[in-house]
Amino acid sequence: MALALLGLAVFAGAGAAHAVTVPMSLIDQDGREVPVGSIEVQATTYGVKLIPNLYGLPPGLHGFHVHEKPSCGPSQVNGKAVVGGAAGGHFDPAQTAQHLGPWGDGHLGDLPSLYVDAKGQATNAVVAPRLRSSDLKGRSLMIHAGGDNHADHPVALGGGGARIACGVLDS
Questions:
Q1: Dist. CA 128–CA 108, nearest whole Å
Q2: pLDDT, tens digit, for every residue of 78-114?
Q3: For the chain, what is the HEC assignment?
Q4: Which of 47-51, 73-77, 94-98, 109-113 has the lowest mean pLDDT?
């Protein structure tokens, strides 16, 4: 499933716009997708800026991460479908195995939480200061059902829970 066909070459070129738009979809255990808007990803001198233009999401704070694989499909764990499981875990090239948020020294794919308003819309930009655009090639963006406390306690991976929406950054 190729969701972002706009190519990531715009990140690398001198004088380029340094942005790409990633279509996002609600996902389920059967691999069905329902479009919910997009996220514009921009390379800046302060890290990667992610500008959501999303609708139809549950209101509140949501865990938001870069996942290691470019897929939004389900996977199987012990014979049970895992929604968005084909995206793998949080992007963690240094193999820290720690969820410490976007400012800590844990997963590089930990992003600031995504805020969804009472109308189900998300439009507030977030900045991931440790990420560079080259880190995103061949990865996915994932939105989780619940908020993220950017720690592994009391619940692993910030407590965000189920994966509900996803988009692919094609290589």
A1: 9
A2: 888 899 999 999 998 999 888 777 888 888 899 999 9
A3: CCCCCCCCHHHHCCCCCCEEEEEEEEECCCCCEEEEEEEEEEEECCEEEEEEEECCCCCEEECEEEECCCCCCCEEECCEEECCHHHCCECCCCCCCCCCCCCCCCCCCECCCEEECCCCCECCCEEECCCCHHHHCCEEEEEECCCCCCCCCCCHHHHCCCEEEEEEECC
A4: 94-98
What is the model's pTM? 0.86
Site of tokens 């844990």: 106
Tokens representing 25? 């979809």
Using an 8 Å Cβ cutoff, are 53 and 68 in contact? no
> Domains, the chain, ranges and CATH?
9-169 (2.60.40.200)
Residue 19 contacts residue 6 (beta carbons within 8 Å): no
Closest CA to 47 of 130, 139, 166: 130
